[in-house]
Amino acid sequence: MQLKTIVLAVGLMATTALTGCSTIGFSYSTASYNSVVDAGYVIPAVPRSKIPPQYLRQQVNYDGSEAPGTIIVDTGAKYLYYVLGGGKAMRYGIGVGKQGFEWHGTARVAMKREWPTWTPPREMIQRQPKLAEFRDGMDPGITNPLGARALYLFNKGGDTGYRLHGTPEWWSIGKAMSSGCIRLMNQDIMDLYNRAEVGAKVIVR
């Protein structure tokens, strides 16, 4: 029994050492995805049990060099990180652009909007003519594609046309389904919205 105990202890020490070498460490998510009433809109609850646990909002270890307040979007892993500082980051599961609509680069949060109006780009209307009825904008609401919040991304050339925004389609998180924007569950974009400041640097990888 004593030998088994020693072997087990050595095994645990090795696991800890390997974990310490990782850039990102995992933590258990206690984030709430209950129904929320916000500005008169009722945001439905998200069924946590149907979301892969890695895509639930959670604080993780982070040893990157970016300054606190920076937003890092990892399109491959389908994660968005909000750098907290002190070796920590808040991580969110995201949905990303489908094939042919991906993008990478650096931008800044130029504007933040609660319950934004959605106006489909001309190119999107050409691909989906039925969206022409919203060429002047779709009113805010639960079915609006931008969800409860939106962060508008600009670079040196001006408006990139891309947004970090909410979505009622929680099942799309972890998948490549959008037209290039980065989508989060409504409860998550509300959390990010409260943390991120106008002017925040956004790095999309």
Automatic annotation (TrEMBL):
<keyword id="KW-0328">Glycosyltransferase</keyword>
<keyword id="KW-0378">Hydrolase</keyword>
<keyword id="KW-0732">Signal</keyword>
<dbReference type="GO" id="GO:0071972">
    <property type="term" value="F:peptidoglycan L,D-transpeptidase activity"/>
</dbReference>
<keyword id="KW-0808">Transferase</keyword>
<dbReference type="GO" id="GO:0071555">
    <property type="term" value="P:cell wall organization"/>
</dbReference>
<comment type="similarity">
    <text>Belongs to the YkuD family.</text>
</comment>
<dbReference type="InterPro" id="IPR050979">
    <property type="entry name" value="LD-transpeptidase"/>
</dbReference>
<keyword id="KW-0961">Cell wall biogenesis/degradation</keyword>
<feature type="domain" description="L,D-TPase catalytic">
    <location>
        <begin position="69"/>
        <end position="205"/>
    </location>
</feature>
<feature type="active site" description="Nucleophile">
    <location>
        <position position="181"/>
    </location>
</feature>
<dbReference type="Pfam" id="PF03734">
    <property type="entry name" value="YkuD"/>
</dbReference>
<dbReference type="GO" id="GO:0005576">
    <property type="term" value="C:extracellular region"/>
</dbReference>
<keyword id="KW-0449">Lipoprotein</keyword>
<dbReference type="GO" id="GO:0018104">
    <property type="term" value="P:peptidoglycan-protein cross-linking"/>
</dbReference>
<protein>
    <submittedName>
        <fullName>Lipoprotein-anchoring transpeptidase ErfK/SrfK</fullName>
    </submittedName>
</protein>
<comment type="pathway">
    <text>Cell wall biogenesis; peptidoglycan biosynthesis.</text>
</comment>
<dbReference type="GO" id="GO:0016757">
    <property type="term" value="F:glycosyltransferase activity"/>
</dbReference>
<keyword id="KW-0573">Peptidoglycan synthesis</keyword>
<dbReference type="InterPro" id="IPR005490">
    <property type="entry name" value="LD_TPept_cat_dom"/>
</dbReference>
<feature type="signal peptide">
    <location>
        <begin position="1"/>
        <end position="19"/>
    </location>
</feature>
<feature type="active site" description="Proton donor/acceptor">
    <location>
        <position position="165"/>
    </location>
</feature>
<dbReference type="GO" id="GO:0008360">
    <property type="term" value="P:regulation of cell shape"/>
</dbReference>
<keyword id="KW-0133">Cell shape</keyword>
<dbReference type="InterPro" id="IPR038063">
    <property type="entry name" value="Transpep_catalytic_dom"/>
</dbReference>
